[in-house]
Amino acid sequence: MHKPKKFQFGNVLTISIAHHLHDVFSSFLAPLLPLLIEKLSISYSMAGMLSVFQRVPSLANPLIGLVADKLPVRYILIIAPSVTSIVMSLMGAAPSYIVVVILLFVSGISSSLFHVPSPVMIKHVSGNRIGKGMSFYMFGGELARTVSPLVILGAVSLWGLEGTYKLIPFGLIASFMLFIKFRNVKISEEFKKNKKETSISTTLRKFYPTFLIIAGIFFFTSIMKSALTAFLPTYLIEKGETLWAGGIALSVLQLAGAAGTFSAGTISDKLGRKNILLITATLSPILMYLFVSIGGIFTIVLLILLGLFLFAVTPVTLAIINEIETDRPSFINGIYMTINFVFGSLCVPLVGLLADWMGMENAYLLSAGIAFGAIPFILLLPKKK
Question: Is the pLDDT of residue 4 over 50?
Answer without folding.
Answer: no
